[in-house]
Recover the amino acids of this structure.
């Protein structure tokens, strides 16, 4: 079952494409932490990729950290292998850690089903927003509802986001 | 003179935007004055994907030719499809312009391509 609003962050310990290992402790100084289920091959991820990168760059100086997790089975989707993750992160100069959930246990523990799928936690590491980045994967110029940005702004102002949940739109996580 | 146009729409239901793509396709056919049935195929197994050389959902073939003319030959698998739009952006859907170009080319009688859809499970939808 997917984490509900106000649920506590589920711990993880995963390898990143940079050779480091990451856990929630790695982000202890962040006021807001976004755990985002992600992958390489999904066209929805590709469509939102530049927007998510830009958002992290914009908010990096305000104690906001994103961490991306790929839980897809690379045996079925070789583009989502650890090596391909490293290539993608280099190519796009990802400003966030990109982690590999080889056992898929982290995705299961969050109840994640799609890529991209955002779980946004406050300073107490309680879930305050879950869902899509915005309301238009296809055209950044046509976005009307900036759910992720709005939630970030609310949380940085110590308010609850007006919209706490939206349906994630994207590819299904590719289970073993 | 407009030539006959055969339209195949192939999708995998776990990819979320196929209804949007089908609506877009039908709207363009209407705008272009093309009266034809859209043959809708739900690709629901790896075997069907391979048999149809399905490059991902959604896929639109006009007279057997993919609307993304530079599409690479695919072995076929169940996945969401990545389109690169005219301005270089990535998208899970073909643009209206991409579909329109393919429809106009087919209506003008340009040669049809390979890769016809012989469906694993098919429904005809107008």
């Amino acid at each position: 079952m997917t984490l509900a609003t106000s649920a506590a962050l589920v711990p993880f310990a995963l390898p990143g494409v940079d050779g480091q290992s990451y856990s929630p402790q790695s982000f202890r100084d962040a006021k807001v932490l976004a755990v985002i289920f992600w992958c390489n091959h999904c066209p929805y991820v590709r469509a939102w990729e530049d927007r998510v990168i830009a958002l992290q760059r914009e908010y990096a100086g305000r104690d906001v950290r994103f961490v991306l997790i790929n839980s897809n089975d690379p045996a079925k989707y070789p583009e989502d292998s650890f090596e391909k993750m490293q290539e993608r992160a280099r190519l796009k100069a990802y400003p966030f850690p990109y982690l590999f959930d080889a056992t898929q246990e982290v995705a299961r523990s969050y109840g994640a089903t799609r890529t991209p799928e955002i779980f946004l936690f406050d300073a107490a590491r309680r879930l305050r927003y879950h869902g899509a980045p915005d309301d238009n994967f296809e055209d950044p110029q046509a976005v009307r509802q900036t759910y992720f940005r709005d939630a970030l702004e609310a949380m940085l102002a110590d308010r609850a986001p007006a919209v706490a949940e939206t349906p994630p739109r994207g590819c299904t996580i590719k289970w073993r | 003179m407009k030539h006959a146009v055969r339209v195949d729409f192939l999708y995998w239901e776990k990819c979320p935007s196929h209804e949007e793509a089908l609506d877009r396709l039908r709207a363009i056919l209407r705008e272009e004055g093309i009266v034809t049935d859209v043959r809708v195929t739900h690709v629901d197994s790896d075997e069907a994907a391979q048999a149809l050389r399905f490059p991902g959902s959604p896929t639109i073939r006009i007279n057997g030719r993919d609307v993304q003319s530079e599409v690479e030959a695919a072995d076929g698998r169940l996945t969401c499809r990545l389109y690169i739009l005219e301005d270089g952006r990535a998208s899970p859907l073909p643009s209206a312009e991409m579909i329109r170009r393919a429809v106009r080319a087919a209506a003008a009688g340009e040669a049809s391509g390979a890769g016809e859809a012989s469906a694993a499970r098919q429904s005809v939808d107008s």
User: Anything to note?
Assistant: Strands of chain A lie at 14-15, 21-22, 32-38, 64-70, 98-100, 114-115, 117-121, 127-131, 171-172.
